[in-house]
Amino acid sequence: MKSYAAVDLGASSGRVMVGRVGPDSLELTEAHRFPNRPVRTPEGLRWDILALYAGILDGLRAAGQVDSVGIDSWAVDYGLLDADGALLGNPVHYRDTRTQGVAEKVWATVPAAELYASTGLQYAPFNTLYQLVAARSSSQLAHASRLLLIPDLLAYWLTGVLGTELTNASTTQLIDPRTRDWSYDVAERLGVDLGLFAPLRRPGDPAGLLRQSVLDETGLAGPVPVTTVGSHDTASAVAAVPAMGGERFAYICTGTWSLAGLELEAPVLTEASRAANFTNELGLDGTVRYLRNIMGLWLLQECVREWGDPNLGDLLSAAAEVPALRSVVDAGDAAFLAPGRMPARIADACRDSGQPVPESPAEITRCILDSLALAHRRAITQAQELADHPVDVVHIVGGGTRNALLCQLTADACGLPVVAGPAEAAALGNVLVQARTHGLVADRTSMRELLTHTQQLTRYEPRTPTGAWQAAEARIADR
């Protein structure tokens, strides 16, 4: 067996996980977990990147000797380096307001339909392209020599080696998913300097060795390689979908966001796909992650925070007793993107649409979970139609697998069996790419077979007719 450290950074916490992999075994343990607390400064919302780096060093120290390190995180955000390689400022958080109204300016130069045909990326106001256009007149960008996406920035601090990992780069809206290279025409027309980006690298490529100073700080004995993984956490999570060979599946990666879609061999760049707001992000081995971003458990996380962190199990039990589909909201509505006042905003959305207004935490929680299941249904149904790619089962991976009510509601809404697990999909995908690179796993199929044999999975069969869900979907469509 060999040991691999998976640095897995989410929107609210980071962790260093240790995966131990053998020919027929896969064990994952948590070495260290640390908070990820964005900071609101006078300039706006920023990531505390130094605290994250310190958490990674603490995690590597706790992990002990490993054969390799891989890093994955959320997408789109970046740090800027000066000519000496020093960070010019804390990276801007994707929920910062600086990109408001920027998309319309971009579309005036490259119409939305053209942009989608070139990059295949769904509209989201925080895409890296819009962030760069918003920062065009900033002194930081004017003095920048390099731009590194968050996992690449952290890998650079660990190794001193510069690179831009492809699956994460595909979320910038500057990659052509057909060529798997930069969209030079889009960048030129919008004045984006692609020279800021380090050379592209792919999952499995070497990303350097831990610096001597890092070895001294963590107590590890070198050399310890850093291996490029699917550094967008969704790419790593999809790599860890435990699908059987030949199985026709959809996936939902659940957590702060829900990413619901299909694994395809080629992008879908039609106007209908753009109108439905599906994205074509790149995955392992030339695959395309054809999916829609849904607000996800962020809605519930924000409510729980405002309610003073009540016991989640008790809250979900109470929500299960609330009548189904009494009130639903559009879980993809940008009105829910910003933090703060989430229970009141959900109640307002129900009131404005003429539905019963949820008042108690249980009622609001049930509204959120019904709405998420409905959004899952809508995304999976439309993805099959737009890609002409029918499925027989839905795999749910990530933190939402621990929410049995959400998993059952998703099976009911989709009218398909749901297989839930593993919960730590991003970390497992990270570990398995490292293991494959070092010869312990043969290919993507072998990775998934190992997952099905070693991870705890729960199957949920549809229990209710889909007619009520169709009616609820019509309620949202009518608004």
TrEMBL record:
GO terms for molecular function: ATP binding; glycerol kinase activity; rhamnulokinase activity. Residues 64-238 form the Carbohydrate kinase FGGY N-terminal domain. It comes from the Bacteria. Residues 250-436 form the Carbohydrate kinase FGGY C-terminal domain. It holds the Pfam family FGGY_C. Keywords: ATP-binding, Disulfide bond, Kinase, Nucleotide-binding, Rhamnose metabolism, Transferase. SUPFAM superfamilies: Actin-like ATPase domain. The keyword Transcription regulation does not apply. GO terms for cellular component: cytosol. InterPro entries: ATPase_NBD (IPR043129), FGGY_C (IPR018485), FGGY_N (IPR018484), Rhamnulokinase (IPR013449). GO terms for biological process: glycerol metabolic process; rhamnose catabolic process. Belongs to the FGGY kinase family. This is Rhamnulokinase. It comes from Streptomyces liliifuscus.
